[in-house]
Amino acid sequence: MFEAHLGPITDHESLRRRAIDYFQEYVRTNAAVPHTFAALNSAADPGPISPEQKLLRLESLAEPLSKTGVSFNDFADAHSKSDPASRALVDHVLDQWNHRPDIRRNPVSFAAFKEQLLDELSEPDWPEKLRDRLGLAHFDCVAGDIPVGLMEYEVGEVERQAESTTGLHHRFCAPTSLDGAPYAQFAPTPIQLPFGCPMALYVVQSDDDLVAELLHPRLMYVRSHLKRVGVISNRVAPADFIALRNNHLWALRLASMRDEFGAEV
Fold it and tell me: Average of pLDDT values for 225-254?
């Protein structure tokens, strides 16, 4: 499908522009099922996943809070309480986030397995630790602090919601280069691995540093999904991008036992 969308390509910028156009039209779309979950992407289907497996997403709360007129301090305070007014405030923000078209949420969600992130979750600065491990370079605090929410849910919840969505061929898949706009931190994984592996914002030293991630259709959030709120305050630490990529590639080769995968830069 992407090849048909390409047309004549004369330079790298043309290819980049077409990839962005394809993503906006066929992946980040609310008009139809994203190509990510269509039959044409069956090769990226990881197969059955235990429904009790817990998944995590680190979400920026900046836009939903801004567009609902709720301050982060008020939201964090409400999240820490269980009285009716506090619960209603959290429910309101999440409901608006789920349904308002002017609050952006990609219909394709990246998620990681909680069990691989327990060390990061145990740290006081867990938002920044998760950002760095998951390669979320866009959470760089260029314009100031970023309020975030830690969303946790089970595989089975995604599957149950997907049952009512017409046209989904599969509910989970490994990320490919067409499931997002061109992004320096994205690196594909060998077909021997049934999942993606985000490139960390630091130089990894072992394939044990890799985190498995999957894509799934956007989940409608409820209060029980919001496990924590926090703030990312520090910029991404400077790093040698070539070393980031080459060590990540080396780790992928070890994990997949495919020594010829990719090429160093």
Answer: 97
